[in-house]
Design a protein that fits this description.
The complex is a heterodimer of chains A (about 300) and B (about 400).
Chain A (H helix, E strand, L loop, with lengths): L1 H5 L7 H37 L2 E2 L7 E2 L3 H8 L7 H32 L4 H13 L2 H11 L6 H8 L11 H14 L2 H12 L3 H9 L4 H12 L1 H16 L3 H6 L13 H11 L3 H25 L7
Antiparallel strand pairs in A: 1-2
Helix pairs in contact in A: 3-15, 4-5, 4-8, 4-9, 4-12, 4-14, 5-9, 12-15, 14-15
Chain B lengths: L1 H15 L17 E7 L3 H17 L4 E7 L4 H10 L6 E5 L3 H6 L18 H5 L2 E2 L2 E2 L2 E7 L1 E5 L10 H14 L4 E4 L5 H13 L5 E2 L4 E2 L4 H15 L3 H4 L10 E6 L1 H10 L5 E4 L9 E10 L6 H12 L4 H7 L7 H6 L6 H10 L2 E2 L7 H18 L4 H16 L3
Parallel strand pairs in B: 1-2, 1-3, 8-11, 13-14
Antiparallel strand pairs in B: 3-13, 4-5, 6-13, 7-11, 7-12, 9-10
The chains are: A mainly alpha (about 300), B alpha/beta (about 400).
Protein name (chain B): ABC transporter substrate-binding protein
Pfam family, one (chain B): SBP_bac_8
Organism (chain B): Nocardioides astragali
Chain lengths: ~300, ~400
């Protein structure tokens, strides 16, 4: 380390200096690369290998080729809930991603306009993201309680009838999406950074031309936030497809009423760790990986070309 | 190659284990005289009592030392499987009853040597949970079952039969529509665990392992689902889905285990309740749960490990050990001599344990329970699928999974 760091000062030739810089750079990224290698790539490779085996974690794995993939996808007798879990997850993505983008944007927009205490609001709206999932689950269980929950009480005040939100199959995923919308602190922060990045000259110029607040929002803010929105859509979709912790806590590891809370990763987890089908669970995780890869590729294809402007 | 395989296995286990936080590196104690014993993490006071038992054992068996490893119950099976995949499993430990067949089939646990325990000392149901293919693979350490809980303000005489149960439930709900008759079990893993007790009461069984036949779609099993479906009419889910409905007086009855006797006394002292034997149809029956002590095949010193299990299950120590960990003794003499026997509510549980049935000993039982039977319960109890249809579908799937005709 010390020798390379001193290289530029010791007046060596250009080539040697560049070589030294490269080495330094590699040393700096080495911890991150090692982390990726040891904790992500190697295990992912192992999971790929195990997806071709029948393995219950306690006896040796047995090579079965593509049988796991075939059974997971097509054998409804062994995995009756696989497609159900795909449906639940798809519905969750469709509801939760736009919902958290919307709340994230609205809170960011409002925070951007406050004159005082911006950091307080930033913190307040970010708290749900850093709160332990178990605590979030416990709090929302109470909020959604069919008899005493605040949600039903609030609905009662405006004359609407309460529901058994987490006990009725049709309301489970919307209830989950609402929690996701409440946890949109990350979206808020990134939107806020995006808002700060819009040069004020645009607003000033438009005001001179007589544009109102709505026009400024519609014609300047939103178009200029497109790269931000795109980024958040991609990352939001990826994380929504992998939702697990919250449902695990809310339904204590069970799939919820009529399987309505059986998200893809919960199904995968139960197959691997509860039913001892780690091979099939690995196959499921690779199917999810491929799905995410494809969806993201499509999103990049659809991405508008004029981002740099 | 073997090493590569093992390390790959360990890594895959580590990544896939979402809940597996830093798994405190045990396993160094490869000392032949040390028995590493895994059990569910108790409260700190309870842990001290377990340590006292260890001290007593070590005094009596010089040369053997016991290394206790406490694992939170919710993560136990996951951590055990991950540790074993990484070749760092314990010498001995708890094993959840329905896991016995899977571990025995995979040769991961050792058959209990003849003469280690005397079968006649133990409750039949608890002992049966250790049998796989007619061989004994573990020592029953602690057990539990479910009984009927009833709110004495709402129910004067506890129902003894299914018909009475339905009648009492209807009376309660007619009297006050905001109160449910019974917190009816749901189509989840817990409900599916209780269900075999009801089937047994109606004179049925879940599987016929000898003749390789799935029997949980027979008439008694249908009758059990019919009962739950009927109970639901006087026990709306909007009420019972609330948090702790029985404890808060919103449900007049529930089926639950001794942990709730203790829990309610401590946390809901104002609730007036009592317990009774499960209402029956043809015969008295309930379901059994609990944990067995097993010795894993990688154990350095099997003899020492079995001695420790013997110690935990004997007449002198079993009641104390089971009590420390919040469960019931499996040793009959220990149960009868224990202070538990003075508590009338606990006595009901002890009596119920005599008719508690073990779950089928097949490796895939957890999946059949959680996915197939739970789903059938849900469809027939909460949904409108006729019990026969729901159970036939589940039975067909179970037969395919088990490779039975």
């Amino acid at each position: 380390m010390t020798t390379t760091a001193q290289t530029p000062a010791s007046g060596t030739s250009q080539g040697a200096r560049r070589e030294g810089d490269t080495l330094t750079a590699y040393l700096f990224v080495a911890p991150a690369m090692l982390h990726t290698l040891i904790f992500m790539l190697v295990p992912a490779g192992a999971a790929l290998y195990f997806s071709f085996t029948e393995w219950d974690m306690i006896s040796p794995a047995r090579w079965v080729g593509l049988a796991n993939y075939q059974e997971v996808l097509f054998n409804g007798d062994v995995y009756p809930d696989f497609w159900k879990s795909v449906q639940v997850t798809a519905l969750y993505v469709v509801l939760s991603v736009p919902a958290s983008l919307l709340t994230g944007f609205v809170t960011a927009y409002l925070i951007d306009t406050v004159r005082r205490g911006e950091s307080f609001y930033r913190l307040a709206f970010y708290l749900p993201v850093v709160t332990a999932e178990a605590a979030v689950g416990a709090v929302w269980l109470w909020l959604y309680d069919p008899q005493f929950g605040l949600v039903n009480q609030a609905l009662g005040v405006i004359g609407l009838e309460g529901k058994d939100w987490l006990g009725t199959p049709s309301t489970v995923v919307p209830a989950l999406a609402l929690i996701a919308a409440w946890q949109s602190g990350t979206c808020m922060l990134i939107f806020l950074a995006g808002l700060k990045g819009i040069p004020s000259v645009y607003y000033e110029a438009s005001e001179v031309d007589g544009a109102g607040a709505a026009q400024r929002l519609w014609r300047i803010t939103l178009p200029l936030l497109r790269p931000t929105t795109f980024f958040l859509t991609v990352t939001g979709l990826i994380s929504a497809l992998q939702v697990f912790g919250l449902v695990y806590v809310l339904f204590s590891g069970s799939p919820g009423p009529e399987g309505s809370g059986l998200t893809y990763v919960l199904h995968l987890y139960l197959a691997g760790f509860r039913n001892g089908s780690m091979g099939a669970a690995s196959a499921m995780s690779f199917l999810l990986f491929v799905a995410i890869l494809l969806i993201t590729a499509v999103q990049f294809r659809l991405m508008p070309r004029d981002f740099e402007d | 190659m073997k090493l590569l395989h093992k390390s790959l296995a360990a890594l895959a286990a580590a990544t896939l284990t979402l809940t597996l936080a830093a798994c405190g590196g045990g396993g160094e104690a490869a000392d032949a005289n040390t028995v590493e014993f895994w059990y569910y993490q108790p409260t700190p006071e309870q842990a001290q009592k377990v340590q006292a038992l260890v001290d007593e054992f070590e005094d009596a068996n010089s040369g053997i030392s016991i290394k206790l490893v406490e694992i939170p119950k919710a993560d136990y099976n996951t951590k055990l499987a991950s540790a074993m995949a990484g070749d760092r499993g314990p010498d001995a430990g708890y094993l959840d009853q329905p896991q016995m067949a899977r571990f025995a089939d995979a040769d991961q646990i050792v058959e209990v040597p003849a003469g280690t325990i005397d079968d006649a000392d133990f409750y039949e149901g608890a002992l049966q949970t250790n049998m796989v293919d007619g061989k004994l693979y573990g020592v029953p350490l602690q057990q539990t079952t479910v009984v009927l809980f009833y709110n004495t303000d709402l129910v004067s005489t506890p129902p003894k039969t299914w018909d009475e149960l339905v009648a009492v439930s209807e009376d309660v709900n007619n009297e006050n529509p905001d109160v449910a008759g019974v917190a009816v079990p749901k189509g989840d893993g817990f409900g599916a665990w209780m269900y075999p007790g009801f089937v047994a009461s109606a004179g049925g069984t879940m599987l016929d392992e000898k003749n390789k036949k799935v029997t949980f779609a027979d008439v008694p099993a249908e009758e059990a689902l019919d009962l739950w479906h009927t109970l639901l009419e006087s026990s709306p889910r909007e009420i019972t889905n609330s948090d702790l409905p029985f404890q808060k007086g919103l449900a007049a009855m529930m089926f639950s285990g001794p942990w709730d006797i203790v829990g309610i006394r401590e946390q809901f002292p104002q609730l007036k309740f009592d317990v009774a034997l499960m209402p029956m149809k043809e015969t008295e029956a309930s379901t059994i749960g609990g944990d067995n002590g097993v010795v894993f095949s990688g154990a350095d010193n099997e003899d020492a490990a079995f001695k420790w299990l013997q110690f935990l299950s004997d007449e002198t120590h079993n009641a104390e050990f089971a009590d420390i960990t919040g469960n019931f003794p499996t040793n009959i003499a220990a149960a009868e001599a224990s202070t538990l026997a003075d508590d009338p509510q606990i006595q009901v549980v002890l009596q119920q344990l005599e008719t508690a049935h073990a779950r089928p000993a097949v490796a895939d039982w957890i999946q059949i329970n959680d996915e197939y039977i739970a789903r059938a319960i849900e469809a027939a109890v909460d949904g409108d699928t006729p019990p026969a249809d729901a159970l036939d579908e589940a039975a067909e799937r179970a037969a395919k999974l088990l490779g039975w005709s």
